[in-house]
Amino acid sequence: MRSFLLATIGIVLASPAAIADGLSLAGSLWQCTRASDRSQFVITFYPGGGVGGGEFENGEVTPYIFDASKTKPGEWPGKWDQTGQRFTWAFPDQSIRIEGSLPGPGQANAPLTGTETSSGERSAITCTSLSKLPKIGEGFVIPKNGRFIDLDQDDGELKVPAGVSLQEPGGR
């Protein structure tokens, strides 16, 4: 009876993702493609629930930046959550939210699929696993109207202090 009780407690305390298919997103890095315009971006699921990412173009990632004054050292502005084969990834400073699903059991190299919502726009996405981060380029400025702009344009302002989403917390 005691071993049955211990086994039951172990099952209840186990992660739903581990029970579903053994795939956890913690510590993973993905390159995603938007169906709407074929543009690409990178997202990461940091252990502990933080997120990072950036736009991917010409072989390099331009990291998303965030207002680091709103976070404590070691914290991220966004978060991810995984329940079984479903996940959410949210980066509030850039108004990006992704809801999707993981590959099924036995499909270790299959892509993540989902829907990205960014500034009210929606696009289906497909993401493939990356083993290492591509070359890092310059970061985006967060413009006054909340949409992305390049550093060379003058219609935005940088939130200070800024953090870069593809570096370790505390390394800002």
Report on the structure:
This protein is mostly beta strands. The chain contains 2 helices and 12 strands, in the order ααββββββββββββ. It has helices at 2-13, 16-20, and strands at residues 28-34, 40-45, 51-57, 60-63, 65-67, 79-83, 86-91, 96-101, 112-118, 121-130, 135-136, 162-164. The strands form 2 sheets. The protein has a 10-stranded mixed beta sheet, with no helix packed on it. Strands 5-12 form a two-stranded antiparallel sheet. A hairpin with a 2-residue loop joins strand 6 (79-83) and strand 7 (86-91). The protein is globular, with a radius of gyration of 18 Å.
Give the DSSP E fraction (strand runs of 2 or more residues).
Answer: 35-45%
Total E-strand runs: 12
Overall 3D form: globular
CATH architecture: Beta Barrel
Assign the CATH topology: Lipocalin
Query: How many whole angstroms does the radius of gyration measure?
Result: 18 Å
